[in-house]
Amino acid sequence: MKIRIWGARGSHPHPITPDQFRERVKSIVQRVREEDISSNENRERFLNSLPDWLWNPPGGNTPCVEVRLSDGSCLIFDAGTGIIPLSQRMRSQEPGIQDFHLFFSHFHYDHIQGLPFFSQAYNPSTSIHFYSPEPDVEYNLKDHMQHPFFPVTMEEKMTGKQHFHVLRSDHRGNRAIELNGAKVEWHDINHPGNAYAYRITEGDASVIIATDYELSDSDFAKQSRHGTFFANPDVLILDTMYTLGEAIEKFNWGHSSFSIGVDFAHAWGVKTLLMFHHEPQYSDKRLYNNLRHARWYAERQNYPDLDIRLAQEGMEIDIP
Ligand SMILES: [Zn+2]
Ligand SMILES: [Zn+2]
């Protein structure tokens, strides 16, 4: 299984402004010594030695995560603006892929606003499967793509075959579907208007995508409503939008702090925690500071086995 991050910002896109761009170039130029530009090799070495906030920015697109199964099946979680570069890359590098499986955590703008620009949906030879536990999935998606909000509608112009799947539990109450050899489970998480986390398991590999999630004490209890949904995944992609102070200030806004996220990941035996749904008001430097603080906090709490990373566009994680 392979995971690719295409958009990791929350709430709204965060394009770099001209001032920020100039500041960034200035910060880089100030660090250059003569020998750093004396050869191509030195230049590469210099660039790769820059702090991550300067050379590996997390990017400004809103949530979109691709999960590739071992047979190449393409599962996409949320259609924030990150789905636009995904779509462009697929068109140029993998034009043969014709089946797409799009799962939605919920329908807030930042999670659907890239869908009108998903060019594969306008190709009659593709099949797009849309999934959500919300009975209104079809209505919600079609409703935001019509005049006066957008010039073309899903019905008239999106000529790819559309299949809408309302995810429902089976007669035993299991909330899971089988998809091309993998299992996809879903689970309610606390967010205004409700949102859903997804867990994808293929063989021994598993990833959970839990974005737009305000954690509370009850989420840590092993005998809670969560059952085994959060137990021992290889990767947990989690809403860690705020600092603790801000999360307290923004109680009930539907997002979590990175420190409670670290505790949560440890409590459920997560191997790798990917900090996700970055606050758009935070600079890249601040996001990397938050990562440092999250790692420091994990060390202080004595969670030595927890690997913590910041989700950034272009990041790929292979789970064997
Ligand atoms: Zn969001
Ligand atoms: Zn939301």
UniProtKB/TrEMBL annotation:
Residues 61-255 form the Metallo-beta-lactamase domain. It comes from Salinispira pacifica. Transmembrane segments: none annotated. This is Metallo-beta-lactamase domain-containing protein. InterPro entries: Metallo-B-lactamas (IPR001279), RibonucZ/Hydroxyglut_hydro (IPR036866). Pfam families: Lactamase_B_2. The lineage of its organism: Bacteria, Pseudomonadati, Spirochaetota, Spirochaetia, Spirochaetales.
